[in-house]
Amino acid sequence: YKYTSITSPTVTLGNVATIFPLNLDGMVFNVSYSFVSGKPGIYPGVFTFQFSKSEILMLPNGAVIMDEIENSTSPVDVLFKYFDPVFVIYGTDGDKVSINVKNFPLNFSFITGSYEDMAISFPVVLADGYPDTFCIEQVNGYLFVYDAMVSQENAGVISDGKIEVAFALVPNEKATNIARQDFPILELYEQGYVIFDEPSKYLNIPEMIGVSSAALSSGETSFVEIENGFSFTANTEAQKSATFVQCAIHSESSGIVNINGYPLETEEVLLPDGTKYLITKFVLVNGSFATGAFISGDVAYIFDGITDDAFTAEVKVISSSSSDSPLDTLFYHERGSFEASSLEGLTDQTE
Q: CA angle, 106 as apex, 105 and 107 as ends, to 5°?
């Protein structure tokens, strides 16, 4: 077997308020066990989180939430409309990220009697070790949640004899009228993932005057498959704003990640099962600029073209050896770029 089931762990519970100051309920869960080389541990179980009507009514839109819950045939859907069910794990850069799992097959059960006291419960397998995907996967019908995404930076916390996760029901902007900005937001897709992070430190350049940090919510990103990649749309407020993006895309071979047609510096990550992903990072701006992209320092700035209520981008892989690539080489400088083109179009001018 790939895993060993943890039978005599040391479990330490932390204070969820130190991670999510505002939460309906949650748990900081650290499990230590005797690690056997080559046999990472798993800890299956059922989470149950309790909360009360009075706690919900304390929120700015609490009365609306309770009215919808009490009159709904699917109260768990109403709950997840206003509260994000999020796990917090180690992201690829070693810092923590949050994952909204409302759309994952976790078999959530809503438990209530008189609606004065309520709870949700769901089965889950907490896992150490290297996932075959990024951090959440189904194994024989069970959902495994790993405490770290696969990356070189996380080598010290993967298969280390500890499982460190946190989970909470966190009120979102529909409940509080204020968007969550507690952790970078990880959005998973079949072909890869996108992480949205706080961009403030990248906005102190002249070109970013008038650009604010975006207010993004977890679970509000949609993906569409396109040739050699995917596009994503992330809902936001209709103003000129920016978010720092890290995205990964599955690729059978080495290549370069293109964002809206612009090739960016690309890193390769090889998962334990041999799956290869190409990763790039950039600042995505909800708006337009004289050019669609520029480089400042070592940071790429990509503009989605229009200031509206969504960030949009296309993520494609172009083979570094592909003759079909419209961009053979693109050199950026502070205010623009030089695109090296094929010589084929210069008839009778080259040898």
A: 100
- Which three-class secondary structure state does DSSP give residue 306? coil
Structure confidence at residue 324 (pLDDT): 43
Q: Give yes or no for a contact between 99 and 135, defined as CB atoms under 8 angstroms apart.
A: yes
The one-character DSSP state at 151 is: S
Rounded to a whole number of angstroms, the distance between the first and last alpha carbons of the chain is 61
Q: Taking Cα atoms as reference points, which of 307, 350, 320, 172 lies closest to residue 253?
A: 320
Which of the residues in the chain have pLDDT under 70? 1, 272-273, 320-351
What does the H/E/C string look like for 235-256? ECCCCCEEEEEEEEEECCCCCE
Nearest to 51 by CA among 98, 104, 110: 110
β-bridge pairing 41-52 and 25-32: unpaired
Say which residues have a Cβ less than 8 Å from residue 147's Cβ, sequence separation at least 6. 89, 90, 126, 127, 128, 157, 162, 163, 164, 165
Burial of 344 (0-12, 13-18, 19+ CB in 10 A): exposed
| Residues 139-176: b if buried by 16+ CB within 10 A, e if exposed | eeeebbbbbbbbbeebeebbbbebbbbbbbbbbbbbbb
Cα–Cα distance, 103 to 114 (Å, whole number): 27
What residue has token string 């045939």? 73
- SS3 assignment, position 54: helix
Indicate the helix (H) or strand (E) that contains 312.
strand 310-318
Q: Which residue has the tokens 């050019």?
A: 291
Q: For residue 79, how many other CB atoms are within 10 A of its CB?
A: 23
Task: Mention every residue, 6+ apart, whose C-beta is less than 8 A from residue 248.
Answer: 92, 134, 192, 193, 269, 277, 278, 279
pTM (predicted TM-score): 0.76
